[in-house]
Write a sequence for this structure.
């Protein structure tokens, strides 16, 4: 059974944090799905990922192409897993199910802590997924670096840092 990590973005924007997390996932040997809720925003992320620099090249593609299954990182609005991803990164309030958390190695939910709507949506996802028995961790960068602030274990126990 996998885990879901919530990343509360307060200092670094999505386009700064996502490449770092994608590099870590790829270093673990995982294929990744980046699920968004808006096609234009995914197109924008696609462009940003191509600009990460040669030393941090992140091969990826937008869903809907003929090579979706071969993409190590696939940006999509869909709930399918055409590239056999072991990791899902949900951005901009994209949905995540408890079944996905169970089936994958890791699920990451990235949300803008300066957006009240995004914050409320992430709280709802935390409650729903932890209530469904998913192991969850909440990470915040409020102090300038990433720190684990809370952890929910299967069975409902929550530890706060």
């Amino acid at each position: 059974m996998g885990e879901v990590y919530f990343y509360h973005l307060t200092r670094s924007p999505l386009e700064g944090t996502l490449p770092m997390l994608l590099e870590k996932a790829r270093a673990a040997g995982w294929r990744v799905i980046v699920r968004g809720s808006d096609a234009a925003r995914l197109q924008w992320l696609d462009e940003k990922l191509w600009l990460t620099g040669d030393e941090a090249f992140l091969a990826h593609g937008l869903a809907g192409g003929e090579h979706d299954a071969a993409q190590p990182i696939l940006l999509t609005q869909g709930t399918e897993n055409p590239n056999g991803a072991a990791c899902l990164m949900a951005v901009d309030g994209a949905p995540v199910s408890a079944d996905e958390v169970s089936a994958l190695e890791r699920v990451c939910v990235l949300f803008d802590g300066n957006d009240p709507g995004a914050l409320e949506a992430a709280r709802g996802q935390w409650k729903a997924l932890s209530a469904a028995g998913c192991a969850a961790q909440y990470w915040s960068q409020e102090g300038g670096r990433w720190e684990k602030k809370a952890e929910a274990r299967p069975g409902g126990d929550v530890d706060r840092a």
Summary: The CA atoms of residues 15 and 48 lie 7 Å apart. The radius of gyration is 15 Å. The longest helix spans residues 116-131.
